[in-house]
Amino acid sequence: MDLRELGAGLSGHGWTIGVWLRHAVSPGVAPASSPWSVVAEDPKIGPVKLTGRIRHEPSTSLVMIVHGLAGDIEAPYMIAGATAASAAGLSCLRLNLRGADRGGEDFYHAGLTADLHAAVSSEELARYQQIFVLGYSLGGHVTLRYAADGSDPRVSAVAAVSPPLDLDLSARAFDRPTCDIYRRNVLTGLKEIYDNVARRRPVPTPVSEVHRIRKIRQWDDCVVAPRYGFRDAEHYYRSVSVASRLSELTTRSLIVFAKNDPMVPASAVAASVERCSPETLVKWVDRGGHMAFPSKLDLECGGPLGLEGQIMSWFRGASSTTPSRGVTWPS
Fold first, then answer.
1. Domains in the chain with CATH codes
2. In this predicted model, what pLDDT tens digit does every residue of 65-79 receive, in sequence order?
3. Most CB atoms closer than 10 Å: which of 30, 100, 265, 294?
4. 103-123: per-residue pLDDT in tens?
5. Residues 6+ apart with CB under 8 A from 317
6. CB-count exposure of residue 11 (10 Å: 0-12, 13-18, 19+)
């Protein structure tokens, strides 16, 4: 049995954990790629080096993939996205948001679109006539915010998987006791990033204090807010949540949720979804968890079954068809 489907009859927790169990037992291998980097200019700290891996196919189109909170380019979903892009004949850039490579450059937040702008405008991507952006979880939020703020004209479509559209509601949900196992794992990764930054430059909060953080809202209060000029976590959430900007999206957008996602529950995003623009297609899937879906998922996008295969097919179709607005609840 596919480990992604262990516990499928129990809850979204089974799906979510199953993906990582499968990766632990049989790690995926990304298609051959080359190191990539670019420098983003930060108004407060100056040059920030971004890294990633790029694979050039004989194509004029490229997919840029953005990881979730505390993730990086080697996360299993990033590898799955790169594999699907290659199978579809699309070039692919797996992007590390600042600091995700543990290089100590800086740390990111859910509304920091500067890294995406720097990546898309990099010299190595200048050859591409068309760019798609695929973001997972927090990376999905950054992707949608990037599209709402106004992306490069070559970006013809974006997709977000399990994005926390309303950061306040999502933080409340993620800080519940039922998410303790996920939150500990995420905070461990975030603290690693912070430790590496602290070795290179002054940080807003002492490392010892940061290591005592147990909640995401605490992290945003003590780390994100002071670094990026927000008064507190609430101010940060109000300022950058894409929820209030969804009606402004003019870029073709696909958003995919699992109804039983334990980390970004439907209750935290359902109201936001109602604000989506006519350019946005939202798909709710019955069986699945956080960034975890059946191996033969059919989103009615044509092409290969499975989440990433469906998204690549949607990218190709979205660049040449009329908008297909709506919220679909697969049976």
1. 3-328 (3.40.50.1820)
2. 999 999 999 999 999
3. 100
4. 999 999 999 999 999 999 999
5. 301, 302
6. middle
